[in-house]
Write a structure and sequence with these properties.
alpha/beta, 271 residues
Length: 271
């Protein structure tokens, strides 16, 4: 199975889109005419162990990088495919973001809105997950050239994930185009035998790209892992999604019930 089915056909559509762009149009925007990848099938790797026994990795397309290091090159045609490996001990105030197609307000308030390091550390402490990997990975998910991502960045990520003996991965997009980038990463990891769970708020994109496992809800770009400074909202999203990783026995796009529960909480005056 291919990460991008009929990649030559997609590359032609992408080439036509690039040629048809208005001179001087901002590279940070893809527009409504962008040719999203369309896959018919999804790879799938069954979880071979229980969640409390897994070394879980976090992969984010937020464009996060450590303050004092170089930013991503947002002027690069097709997108910057550089991968950053960040120790989990790095604090939120030491991170900067390269944002395209999403607002950084939520993640600056609370990094857990996109990189739920603190919530996953809690899950590690109470035994929901076996272990949170000592490093997490970030890249700038605004990569219109999907084939470039698959050919050049993804092998590097897979090599690093395997080196850390990761047994499952949680993937969190930031923007609409990030949903495509993250879904392709999920497909690549599952083809290498690593189960994944993707969070999403753009259902139409994931239905086109077809990641192996995806949980979506009616949330906002820039805070896909939960609203900032609302730990219970974040825990609810993560807990429901991660607990589905093991019982899923085929490719699935699942709707979370977090909106209903959150609305009830608001009506009771609990939030």
């Amino acid at each position: 199975m291919e990460i991008i089915e009929r990649v030559d056909e997609w590359s032609k559509r992408y080439g036509h889109w690039q040629q048809g762009r208005t001179r001087g149009s901002p590279r940070s925007e893809v527009g409504s005419d962008y040719p999203f990848v369309e896959n018919k099938r999804a790879p799938f790797t069954p979880a071979r162990r229980a969640l409390p026994m897994m070394n879980l990795a976090l992969i984010s397309s937020s464009g996060a990088y450590i303050n004092g290091t170089d930013s991503y090159d947002t002027n690069m045609v097709g997108g910057d495919i550089e991968l950053r490996e960040i120790p989990r001990e790095v604090e939120g105030e030491d991170l900067l973001y390269c944002a395209r197609g999403w607002d950084t307000e939520a993640v600056i308030q609370d990094r857990n809105a996109l990189m739920p390091i603190d919530r996953l550390a809690e899950f590690e402490g109470n035994g929901i997950i076996g272990r949170l990997n000592p490093v997490w990975w970030s890249f700038c998910g605004h990569i219109p050239d999907a084939a470039k991502l698959v050919e050049d960045m993804l092998p590097n990520l897979i090599e690093r994930v395997k080196r850390y003996e990761v047994q499952a991965a949680l993937l969190v997009p930031a923007s609409r185009l990030c949903h495509q980038s993250i879904a392709l990463v999920a497909r690549g990891l599952e083809l290498e035998g690593i189960p994944t769970m993707m969070l999403a708020v753009e259902k139409d994109v994931v239905e086109l790209v077809r990641p192996p496992r995806c949980c979506y809800y009616d949330g906002e770009l820039g805070s896909v892992a939960g609203r900032p400074n609302w730990p219970e909202h974040q825990r609810r999203i993560l807990d429901e999604a991660l607990r589905l990783l093991e019982p899923m026995d085929q490719p699935t796009i699942h709707k979370l019930v977090v909106e209903l529960e959150s609305q009830v909480e608001k009506e009771r005056g609990e939030r």
